[in-house]
Amino acid sequence: MKISADFTVVPDDFAxxxxxxxxxxxxxxxxxxxxxDEVSPDAQYLHWTLTDPDSIPVCGFEWIHWTVANLPIDALxxxxxxxxxxxxxxxxxxxxxSMIPEAVQGRNSSASKFVGRENDPAVTMxxxxxxxxxxxxxxxxxxxxxxxxxxxxNQGFWMNELLHKLREAGETPDxxxxxxxxxx
Length: 184
Prior knowledge:
Layout lengths: L1 E3 L18 E2 L2 E2 L5 E4 L7 E8 L3 H4 L3 E10 L13 E3 L3 H8 L4 E2 L15 H4 L12 E10 L12 H10 L5 E9 L2
Antiparallel strand pairs: 1-4, 2-3, 4-7, 5-6, 5-9, 6-8, 9-10
Pfam family, one: PBP
Family: Belongs to the UPF0098 family.
Protein name: Raf-like protein
């Protein structure tokens, strides 16, 4: 599997400099587009995490920005004439529930009781764009592909639950990742 994007620095619309109309509660909520190529032919479902390892010195833990599970590959639009057969479009996080209701999104770090944000699912259970407070941060998008859906994951799952279900799946997931920079 290969993960790619048309950028190495997350564009402003999806990050800290997003316009007010691209924010909810001050948080950028329009997810960025990316591509998933060369997926194992046996794979039927996609799952991913977007985290910020550079947040550890700032807040004491790796910030979770977005988690997705049980996205059926065949629910995505395929264009076999395109060099990127699997494309995750911009703003997918907000549109996913109506487009692909069987796929679920987990909680991000905004849902933590230690952060003190309101419990708005539009912020706590969807994409939260990069907003590094101190310097540019590197964000890690890690995508997994499995033959079967991961059982027991519902809207609002926690990232550790996703990782446990991947480990318990009885298969070795196809996987890859990419680092993208978020500007301070």
